[in-house]
Amino acid sequence: MTRVLTIVGARPQFVKAAPVSVALRAAHLTEILVHTGQHYDPAMSERFFDELDMRAPDHHLGVGSGPHGAQTAEMLRRIEPVLTHERPDWVMVYGDTNSTLAGALCAAKLCIPVAHVEAGLRSRNRAMPEEINRIVTDRVSSLLFAPTAGAAEILRAEGMAQETIVRTGDVMFDAMRMFSGKAAQRSDVLSRLALEQKSYLLATVHRAENTDDHERLGAIIQGLDDIARDLKVVLPAHPRTRKAVAAAGLACARVTMIDPVGYLDMAQLIRNSRLVATDSGGLQKEAYFHRVPCVTLRAETEWTELVAAGWNEIVPPRAPASVAGAIRAALRRALPAAAPAFYGSGHAAEIIAAKLTTCPRKSTS
Ligand code: UD1
């Protein structure tokens, strides 16, 4: 029986792995689940496992935080003996985090073939740690699961072998379809925060390029504080963001800054918001799944199809007034008439499982 070893570690990877685990089980593949421990706060880890009906990891490596080199090195050191012991047929990694890079690199060096879910995404900004992680992971992978037509095209243009590229659709869309009913039933986040439907803006900020740069962080936080004069702004804050806002002494009393929320609360918050303003990749898509317009607080995005279709607008965080002005303009705009199926039909996980079942085990050479 084919054995797939899944490596996760950060919040968005739990969301992506959940529907794939279900599909692997349905296809009678054996999954070994490894959690690097990159995200370790219960609110950013255990809560996701519970809400997404995931079983406990088979191996929890407890790596925790650290500078990029040290964090990645510690992951490599701890993943290697697990792979040597388990000898899976495939190692599956997700997205673009340090856990993705460490898992892929470790497996490739042990000649275990790597399958990369969310392959082919590029921001073209090599100052982002995530961009380096994506490029390296794609290079050492034997199967490249591309979520969109654009991602598959990028992989082809970079010279990846055609037979390694599989256009799957997006597993986050699968997750949304799988769990949005449960979110509507179980989440009481709107009443807890006294929010009316379509009467607030949902914001998130966590990228190092924003949190570690005083000017950009100030532009975002003070821009949002200005918006909050006339529209409620809810900001579930990543621990990194909360620390950075406090350290910079940024005043944002009008913004409702709350602790990180779980998947189900987040789904409800997105679905009922008027607009999402974020630097997260996942949230840009999740806003679209719920047909909510989005402003991306970065200089570029990997999900360019949403920008081209008018659902997303890039707003580089230069100054509070430009951020607030762009958000106000976006709030005034009508929604685009068309909502193309960029992210597949909600069966990406099944396509991935089917490919792993039929694909001969072949490592990179
Ligand atoms: C990581 C990923 C990013 C992904 C994001 C999702 C990398 C390079 N980045 O960034 O691609 O979009 O996860 O959230 O892998 N911290 C806590 N508690 C936690 C986790 C983190 O307090 O549970 C704090 C730590 O102080 C740490 C900081 O947040 O210094 C950053 O954590 P890190 O593990 O570097 O990842 P993210 O910023 O979350």
SS element count, helices: 16
Q: What is the N-to-C order of secondary-structure elements (H for helix, E for strand)?
A: EHEHEHEHEHEHEHHEHHEHEHEHEHEHH
Gyration radius, in Å = 20 Å
Annotated CATH topology of the largest domain = Rossmann fold
Task: Give the N-terminus to C-terminus distance in angstroms.
Answer: 24 Å
CATH level 1 name of the largest domain = Alpha Beta
> In what range is the share of β-strand residues?
5-15%
The CATH homologous superfamily of the largest domain is termed: Glycogen Phosphorylase B
CATH architecture of the largest domain: 3-Layer(aba) Sandwich
Low-confidence stretches: none
Small-molecule binders: uridine-diphosphate-N-acetylglucosamine
Helix percent band: 40-55%
The tally of strands reads 13
Q: How many domains comprise the coordinates?
A: 2
- Sheet bearing the most strands, described? 7 strands, parallel
The 3D shape can be described as globular
Which structural class should the secondary elements be placed in?
Answer: alpha/beta
Average pLDDT works out at: 97
Q: Within the largest sheet, what's the order of strands? A: 3-2-1-4-5-6-7
Q: How are the SSEs ordered, and which strands pair?
A:
Elements: E1 3-8, H1 11-26, E2 30-35, H2 46-51, E3 59-60, H3 68-86, E4 90-94, H4 98-109, E5 114-117, H5 129-140, E6 143-146, H6 149-157, E7 165-167, H7 171-186, H8 189-192, E8 200-204, H9 208-211, H10 214-227, E9 232-236, H11 239-248, E10 256-258, H12 263-271, E11 275-278, H13 281-289, E12 294-296, H14 304-308, E13 312-314, H15 320-332, H16 348-358
Parallel strand pairs: 1-2, 1-4, 2-3, 4-5, 5-6, 6-7, 8-9, 8-11, 9-10, 11-12, 12-13
Helix pairs in contact: 1-7, 1-16, 3-4, 4-5, 7-12, 10-15
This protein binds uridine-diphosphate-N-acetylglucosamine.
